[in-house]
Description:
alpha/beta, Diaminopimelate Epimerase, Chain A, domain 1, 2 domains, six-stranded mixed sheet, 12 helices, 10 strands, disordered N terminus
Amino acid sequence: MTPSTPTSLRIGFAGTEGADRPHLSVDGMTESGPNLSHWPGNRTPQVYKRDLSTGICLAFAEDDPASRAAFLGDAELVLNDHYDTDGFLSMLAVARPEIALPRQELCLAAAATGDYQAWQTTRGFAVDRIVVNLAAGFSPLAAEFTGLPAAEKALARYRWLIDHAVQVLDRPESLAACWRDEHDAMRAELQEARSGMLQREVLTGIGLSLVTTRRPVARMTLNTLAAAWRVLHVVPSPDGTTYRYHDRTESWFEVVSFTPLPRIDLRPLAARLQELEGTEGDPRHGWHADPPTDPVPELWFGVDEPQAYGQVTRELGASRLPVETVRAVFAEHLLP
């Protein structure tokens, strides 16, 4: 369905322009004005609420022209305050609904791939990786964004994506350099994991998936196969065992079609595990945890270092604690 009166909103970015002028913020949130987002604390009207910001914006785009105009008021810009796939497709839905609405299924698959870091479809993965890798060194478009400050780079990429949305959504193979290698590697890893490389134990009483693999694997592989919102990844080795737990983003976003378990502060759990670990071994390594307010809070044994949103970069160490001990401490801490 295409709305009878498409919006005429222009694209902006909260870090470069527009936040002090009448605007609609999508996916993220500016301090005031109409907002369509699934982020915590959003100001989205109940009638539009969906699991993804893209879904919210598609619902807005399908609403009748009078309701859309009343909601927008005198807004003349659509802004986001960060750069990702759900942000791009949210902006597309409100600024170019004639493109987004006929492609709703693909838009939602791509947004879910990026925000939930879980496999949806090949085309959804391709669109997400095009967005993520648009300015990467191996992208054929890299030179267009070289040298731009962060906020200007985000806005330039959003504008390119909006201008070339039909190409990105209908012909992602034309930008295969941005996604094909990652796609093939991800499909191979998922196939290997399903064939026995990955072992999974779901502790249903606490909603925890204990996933054991013979080597490190991608976060998307874990989320796709975990069957739970709480994931503890275990990799045994002759030197000890690496542990990395994470709460998936589904329990941080405001979702409406399912109910992840509420988050529990992991920092006391890390302190308890550190007591059991003791002080032997590499002094750089210990048990650490993020606050539950982070989008993807982790608990890990390794170096205490920050991690950017959407990244998995922390250096892990080999713990002396056996899996049975760690499992029991987790079960006690997460028990309702």
